[in-house]
Amino acid sequence: MKSIIVALFLLASPVLAQDRAANHLLGQTSPYLKQHLYNVVDWYPWGPEALNKARAQGKPIFLSIGYASCHWCHVMEEESFEDDEIGAFLNEHFVAIKIDREERPDLDEQFMLVTQTVTGGGGWPNSVFLTSEAQPFYGGTYYPPDTFLSILQQLSTMWRDGRPDIEENATALGNVVREYLGRKAAAYPLTAEIAAQLAQQSLATMDDFNGGFGVAPKFPQESSLLFLLDQAERISDTELLEAVQMAAVGMVNGGLHDQVGGGFHRYAVDNAWAVPHFEKMLYNQALIGRVLLRLDSLQPNPSFARAAQRAFDYVLRDMTAPDGGFYAAEDADSLTTTGELEEGVFYVWTPAQVRTHVGAEAEFLIDALTVEEDGNFEGASTLQLSGEEVDVERLDAGLELLHHARMLRPKPRRDDKVLLSWNAEMIVTLVQAARAFDRPEYLTAAQSSARFILAKMRNGEGYYRVNTGGIASIDAQLPDYAGFGRALVALADADPAGDWLAEAERIGHYLVEHFQQSDGLFRMNDQAQGLGDYIQLDDGVLPSGSAQVQLLLSALARRSSDVFFSQQADALTDILSGQALAAPVRRIAAIAAVDVQNRGEVGPVRAVANGAVLVSTVIDRGEGLLNLNIEIAEGWHINAHEPLEDYFVPTRLEVNGTDIGSDAYPDPLITTLSFNEASPLALYEGRIALSVPIEAGANAVTLTLQSCSDEICLAPESLSFRFW
C-alpha cells in the first residue's frame, strides 16, 4: 500500500504544479530548469530575451545558478521560489534568470567568482545580482526565506534610489572578476625539483588521521591525488603513495562509498568520510575510480579493485542510457513513505531495517557495516566498513540482499543529461579499467558512449555540450573538446583499428583554430560569454580546460606523425607552466599536465614511436608477476634482445637495475628488410609479452627499445615504471 501511495504522489505532483502557468523556462531541456518551470517566480533562461528585457525595463537581474541533484537548491526552491510573496516581489522588481551550472560551466565559474569576491565563500545555489546591463554588484548562496525577502527589498530600494552608485560599484567588481579571469603570469619552467616540492607541500595539507585533504566538508580532490601518484611513480616515493592509499581507504570504507549499490557520493560533511552529501555525480565515479585504478596498478589492493569495479558496475547498471551515453547524476533527496522529499533517506539504515530484510545474516552485516541504534544521520546509519577483517564473499552476498530491499524504496531523481566532458572522463576511466581488470564490457560501454557522442552531439565541425532526451544543445566548451579528444586517444590505444585517433587529431586542430588566443593560451569558449573571455586555469569538479588541452596535445604528440602536435604541446608548456605555478594548489592538474609533457607519460599505458608502439603493464595478483605487453603496429618492429647487428639497440627490460635474463625474452623473428637486405635481423613484431617476478617493496622497472619501420629506425626510447 505504501508503494502505491508513493506512486500516486509521484504521478500527482506534476499535475498540481501545472495548475500554475509555465514560466519562460518552457521548452528548456535541462532537468534542473524543468524543475523550476512552474515556480511562482517567472524564470527566464540565460539569453538575449532576458538580458534585453532587463535592459529595456531598467530592472536589475536576479541570477540563480544550481543543478538538478543539489539539495540546498531544492530547499531554496521550496522555501522561496514557491512562496507567493517572494515570487511576486521578484517578478515585479527584478528579471529572474535560472542557469544549470552543469550545462554552463563557463557562466557558473564566472559568477561563482563574483560571490567568492563579495562574500569570501561560495556554493550552490549561487545567488547573484546584476545591473540591467548584466554587471554583477552583489552575491550570496542559499538564503532562508525571510533573509532572502529582506535582501530583495533592500537591493530594490538601493537600485531605485542609488542606481548610479550601484552601477559604479558593479563596474569595479566586474573589472576585478575580469582581471582574474584573464590573468597573465610570466613564463616559468616547471622542473622536476619544483614538482617534488609541490608534492611535499600538498602532502603537508593532508589529514594524517582520516586521510584526504583538510577538514570538513571533505571533497575527494581527485586531481591532487592523481598528481601525488604521478610524483610517487616518477621518483619511487613510498610516502606519497601511502598518503593517497590512506585517503582511498577513508573513501572506500566510509559513508562516501555507497556500500550497497556501488559508486561514490559527492563529498563528506565530516572529517572521517562517514556522512556524505548524498548526490552521486558521474564525474566522481570516473575520477575516484581512476585514483583507485592507479593505486591498484602500483600496488595491488583487492579492496581498491573491488570498490572501483563496483563503481563502474553501478555506472553501467544505473547511469547508462539505452543509446550509450552516461547520465549526469542522481539526487541527494528521495521520497519518504509519507511522500516527503528528504536527503539521504534512500541510503541510510536502522538495525531493525537490516534485520527485516536479511534474516540470519543481519547481525553480521550490522557489525560489518557499523549500523547503530542511534545512527549518525537523522536516527539512521550511513553504511561504513568497520575496518576489521571481513569475509568479502559473505559481505557481498549480504549487500546484494540489502540492494534488493533498497530497490523497493522510492529512488532519488536522476539527472538524465548527457554531458560531453563528463562522459569523456568516464570513457577514459572505463578504457583503463577494461585493461586492468580484463573486463571487456567496460570497453564496450566506453565505445558506446563515444559512438553516441559522435552520432548525436555533433554540431557541424564542432560538438554540442549537452544531450537531454535526444535533444543536443549548447555549444561545447574547452573541457568538452579537450576531454573528448583525450577519450578518443584512450580508445585508440585500446582499439588501434578504429577511427578514434583520426577524430582526436581533428579535434586538436579544431581547438587551436577556434579556441587559441594570440598569447598561446586557450579560451573557455570560442566566443565571449557572460563577463567576457576567460582562461580556465583553476580546477573545478574536473581538471581545468587548460590542463586538458595540454594533456591532449601531449598525447597526440606521442601518437601522431604530425609534428604540429609536438610543436603546439611544447609551446603551450612554456606558457602554461608559469600560469600554473602562480597558484599551484588551484591548478594542480595543469602542473601535472605540464610535467607529462616535460618528463613523459606515467601510468600503466605508454605510447612510443609516434604511436607505432604501445606498452602496457598489469600486475598478476595471483602469481606475483609483472606482465608487460608491447603492441607493435603493422609495418613496424622493435629490435630483439639480441638483434644480430651491433649498431641496433636491443630491447632490454631491467628490474631494479638488473636485466631479466635472456630466457625471459621471446624468440625473435629472423628476417631481412629492404634497408638491410645483406644481413638478417632479429626483431619482434605484433604483440610481445614479457613476465617478470616482482618483490614486495619499491621496484624500478625500465624498458629500453628501438622502433623501426621498413624504411627508418627511430632513436632509442626508455620507459620507467614503478611498482610496490
Q: What is the share of helical residues?
A: 40-55%
Gyration radius over CA: 27 Å
Tell me the number of helical segments per DSSP (H or I, 4 or more residues long).
Answer: 22
Q: How many domain modules?
A: 4
Instruction: Extract low-pLDDT stretches.
Output: 1-16
Major β-sheet annotation: 5 strands, mixed
Looking at the structure, the CATH topology of the largest domain is Glycosyltransferase
- Could you give the order of strands across the largest sheet? 1-3-2-4-5
Distance between the termini: 56 Å
Give the class-level CATH name of the largest domain: Mainly Alpha
The average pLDDT value, as a whole number, equals 94
Short description:
With 724 residues, the chain is an alpha+beta fold.
SSE blueprint:
Blueprint lengths: L1 H16 L13 H5 L8 E2 L2 H10 L3 E6 L4 H11 L2 H10 L1 E6 L4 H15 L6 E5 L5 E5 L4 H37 L10 H13 L17 H14 L2 H16 L13 E2 L7 E2 L2 E2 H17 L3 H17 L10 E2 L2 E3 L5 E3 L7 H8 L3 H7 L23 H15 L7 E2 L1 E3 H18 L2 H17 L1 E2 L2 E7 L2 E5 L2 H17 L5 H16 L29 H15 L3 H19 L6 H12 L5 E4 L4 E8 L4 E8 L3 E4 L12 E4 L2 E2 L9 E3 L9 E4 L2 E7 L5 E7 L1 E3 L7 E7 L1
Helix pairs in contact: 5-7, 6-7, 8-9, 9-10, 9-11, 9-22, 11-12, 11-16, 13-14, 16-17, 16-18, 17-18, 18-19, 18-20, 19-20, 20-21, 20-22, 21-22
What key phrases describe this protein's structure?
about 725 residues, alpha+beta, Glutaredoxin, Glycosyltransferase, 4 domains, four-stranded antiparallel β-sheet, about 45% helix, globular, signal, Ssp411
